[in-house]
């Protein structure tokens, strides 16, 4: 007698798959990972980014010190799947220093976050001192324009040696310049003078000749 084999076929109803977006809950945007301050070196690019949760997809606007930034060659809006929004600041300059804010908005609400871009600029003598000819007893003033962020350390040298300041020979350092003053000039003050600037990104120097007649 042949054995009887029974086969049961279970037919399940078709259940459509729901997309990832359909599974997400609608609601106001939320920032899951905050923006962080970044340091921008002059001439390079910096990137501010945060991680967000938002459905429907949000509308993003970036601001610098309260002024809206347009997406373009200088400021680039970046969206990275699945949930990263970013701003790339290109060709960094000192003027890029500031507070940056991102607003994230959809029909259910909005949120915002902020961070600062700190700009670092190599120390530089933007304009060196001029050569000077002065009479004995006159006051000699050597002035140089300087820049850098962090603000550079400044030194003045005479024939390669650091100048020791006193009441007659001294120098001042401002935000954008430094001035060496020589009162009651003597023949021994005739020399090659150097202004030297330095910060953690670099050094620079410039020279001038002082002749006493």
From TrEMBL:
Subcellular location: Cytoplasm; Nucleus
One MF term in the entry's GO annotations: cytoskeletal protein binding
A GO cellular component entry from the record: I band
Sequence ranges assigned to domain Ig-like in this UniProt record: 29-126, 137-211
Keyword Nucleus set for record: yes
Domain of life: Eukaryota
Gene3D superfamilies linked: Immunoglobulins
Keywords assigned: Coiled coil, Cytoplasm, Disulfide bond, Immunoglobulin domain, Nucleus, Repeat
PANTHER family: IMMUNOGLOBULIN
Family to which this protein belongs: Belongs to the protein kinase superfamily. CAMK Ser/Thr protein kinase family.
Protein name (Swiss-Prot/TrEMBL): Ig-like domain-containing protein
Organism per entry: Scophthalmus maximus
Gene (UniProt): LOC118282630
């Amino acid at each position: 007698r042949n054995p009887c084999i029974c086969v049961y076929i279970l037919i399940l109803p078709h259940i459509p798959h729901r997309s990832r977006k359909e599974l997400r809950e609608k609601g106001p945007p939320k920032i899951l990972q905050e923006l962080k301050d970044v340091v921008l070196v002059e001439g390079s690019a910096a990137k501010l980014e945060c991680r967000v949760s938002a459905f429907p997809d949000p509308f993003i606007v970036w601001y610098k010190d309260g002024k809206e930034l347009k997406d373009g060659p200088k400021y680039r809006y970046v969206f990275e799947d699945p949930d990263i929004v970013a701003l790339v600041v290109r060709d960094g300059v000192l003027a890029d220093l500031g507070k940056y804010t991102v607003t994230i908005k959809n029909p259910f609400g909005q949120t915002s976050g902020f961070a600062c871009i700190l700009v670092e600029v190599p120390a530089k003598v933007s304009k060196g001192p001029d050569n000077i000819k002065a009479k004995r007893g006159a006051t000699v003033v050597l002035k140089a324009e300087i820049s850098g962020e962090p603000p550079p350390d400044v030194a003045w040298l005479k024939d390669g040696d650091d100048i020791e300041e006193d009441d007659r020979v001294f120098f001042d350092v401002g935000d954008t310049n430094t001035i060496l003053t020589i009162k009651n000039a003597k023949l021994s003050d005739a020399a090659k003078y150097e202004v030297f600037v330095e910060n953690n990104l670099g050094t620079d120097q410039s020279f001038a000749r002082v002749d006493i007649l």
